[in-house]
Amino acid sequence: MKQAIVARADLGMGQGKLAAQVAHASLQAYEAAGSTARREWKGGGQKKVVLQADGESELFELAERAELEGLPHAVVRDAGHTQLEPGTTTTLAVGPAGEGAVDTVTGSLSLY
Length: 112
What we know:
Layout: E1 2-8, H1 15-32, H2 35-43, E2 48-53, H3 56-69, E3 73-77, E4 89-97, H4 99-106
Parallel strand pairs: 1-2
Antiparallel strand pairs: 1-4, 3-4
């Protein structure tokens, strides 16, 4: 079991902002997963990886692929209280799900 969080590298988010957006995405996708997947992922150490995307369109393409694969996922839009404009799409989480299934969506991306 694995979760991949994809963050936009083109926004220039500060480290704290990036960490907060990754946390939002992780939790939202976890909540979208079924109880069996949640239990297995938690029991297996909550494996996750943070990857980078070049822009908003890439996030949406990946989200569409995750949807087609039937994987739990979540797209995060910022509230706009600090560094970004309200509604800015920042991150996507895919999984928790089987590692191979997550990799079919995110396996070609580079680490953040």
